[in-house]
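Our preliminary data section would be incomplete without showing what the modeling component actually yields. Below, a chain of 244 amino acids is followed by its predicted structure, encoded as tokens that our downstream tools consume directly.
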Amino acid sequence: MAGLTTGGPNVDVSLLYEINGMARQAPDWFDRAVSLAGGYGILLTLVLLVLWCWRGARRQDEATAVETFAALVWAPLAAGLALLVNMPLREFVARPRPFRQHDGLQVLDPHLRTGADLAQTDFSFVSGHATLAMALGVGLFVANRRIGLIGIGLALVEGFCRVYVGVHYPTDVIGGFALGTAVALVLAPLAMAVLTPLVRAVAAAPRIAFLVRARSGLLTRPVDLAQAQTPPADQRTHESDLAA
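Predicted structure:
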């Protein structure tokens, strides 16, 4: 753990300075955009992707809709579980933030800009943002391959942003990617085995079935052919008068 904690002159630190050094040459608006995207923007976009995927899944046949909905439920659960695993891992590794160990970094995150005032227990490894983003991206991939690839791509951008703003080492981000992927992918078969019967029960319940499948519009009232062929009494009387 000493190597992680001290972070001497190595590739990890060199990449940190190279990526964070881009902020010195970029315009202020770009730095603010990267800080916003890396803080909450990409995570919010991933949540919207989950909702978009759910909207499309509701139009599928029942079997496919149940399977997709179960995977979409697993995506945020996997992200939350990965974050819980990360909490003791951070305390165990106890790696300080890079700006505590190295001078000359541009700290662009507004919450960490005054890094000297933060508690010393605010550790860096593993990146929570990278963990959450990759867990959501891989969870989306389990539900829908095409949308999941977009989610994984956004997770990679999230990791870059966290290094760019100077609050994580590259290995912090890589560790977050590994943790999020492991939780979301390795535990997916067990999660699907548990969630699929529950989702199938929801789909069978009339009042909440719309969560899994879209309502198929109002059914037309069946027409009684015999009644349709027989004109009403007043119409028959009118026709009799005309015949007379």
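Residues 1-8, 115-120, 217-228 have pLDDT under 50 and may be disordered. Residues 103 and 168 are 14 Å apart (CA to CA). Preliminary results of this kind motivate Aim 1 of the renewal.
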